[in-house]
Amino acid sequence: MSSASQLSLNLDAKNQSSRTHELVKYDPIHVSKSTFLAGLSVHIHRWFRFTPSFAPDLVREMLNKLNAEIGDYILDPFSGAGTTAIELTLEGFNSLGFEINPFLHFVNRTSLNWNLDTESLQLHLSKILEEFCNLREKVSFETLEEFGYKIPSIHNPTRWWRPDILRDLLVLKQCFHKIIKDQHEHDFFRLAFAGVLVPDLTNVTLGRLQLHFINRDRDEIDVAEIFSKHAQQMIKDLCNVQRLPNLGSSKALLQNSTNLSNINLRKKVDCVITSPPYPNRYSYVWNTRPHLYMLDFISAAKEASSIDKKTIGGTWGTATSELSKGRFSPLNKAVEEVVGSTISAIREQDDLMANYALHYFNRLTSHLIELERISSPNLRIAYVVGNSWLKGIYIETDVILAEILDRLKLGYKINSVHRFRKRNSGKELFESIVYASK
Predict the structure, then answer these.
(1) Residue 391 backbone zone (phi > 0: left; psi -120 to 50: alpha; other: beta)
(2) Which residues does 321 contact at the CB level (< 8 Å), separation at least 6?
(3) Is the pTM of this model over 0.90?
(4) DSSP letters of 384-425?
(5) Which residue ranges in the chain fall short of pLDDT 50?
(6) In this predicted model, what pLDDT tens digit does every residue of 40-86 receive, in sequence order?
(7) Cα–Cα distances in angstroms (integers) from residue 349 to residues 66, 281, 395, 409, in the given order
């Protein structure tokens, strides 16, 4: 490319960025209505605490801004633990969710099964607790493998779980297998188990970007009581939602949202409400390790890193190793024009982080292109994204996403960039909703 052409490209990108910034508005939404905290007191949403989630209130906010109507088919391509799908179902919408993490997909899918017999669940809960008391007396941590219990193959399991707690967790799991024959009920109790695993029963606390180990040697921990209390709450929630009229229907698929060639829908997607990973090096696989291992979704670190390699912002194991090899190239002209200068600035300090940021926006762009396979001609979208800093360079994800959407020439009009929360962890770390429509 000639220097004159490069100058023209840079000026064009600068002008586009200026126009996009005119759409940016900061209108705060309190954390009680924007973060996972809001879901902790709401039925179904409280079944599994997932701190990166946004609030049910935010789903309703986006529904209103998109002018969504009953009958619209709504997609969440990065569905996590299912906040969007749960709230959409409660509001009477039909929806579809994609999730690449097998554990989070399980949480999502199981949280949407509201047709279980609550009397049967209550009876089986009593039997599980009775059987737990019987089995627990017969086995110690030292004799677990002798009695056929499989200790999770996560590295250094007794760092994750106190030996007596690990014994109780494995015995409780065995009770599910022994007592519950119906797969849907079995999944329900596995989810109740997962819902209290972290942080209640594991030697970790939930930090800003990852789990942190803590010492719990002196803590009084009653596994059966903690599990029972949560399972009882879940059964009560089911009783409540089963009485509600005009519920929608939602489905969750284990799916990579950057490749939708295998998806064939009877009805095209009318709206997208979602939150892709942020470019902040947070790995959802890394932070669900205790769940992935304890609930037998994986048995080796290479399986986890294999999942993370497919995600948008994966940073675990070989996912990071691959980022350290060579220099990544922009997926297309749109990515090059929008983030080229930002990547160059990061690359002056760190090739790996430059590759990470470019890989992130390449994958996000791939997803936007793939979305064309399954979307209606009048698609409306709302993407919750977070800005970040990498090596002192500001990654303005909301503006970048809007500009990539514009430059892909897919027919989108960028309606607004709503910055609704300024995170306490750093300067200008906004969370935003990017609204666009065709």
Answers:
(1) left
(2) none
(3) yes
(4) EEE-EEETTEEE-HHHHHHHHHHHTTSS-EEEEEEEEEE-TT
(5) 1-9, 11
(6) 888 999 999 988 889 999 999 999 999 999 999 999 999 999 999 99
(7) 41, 17, 15, 33
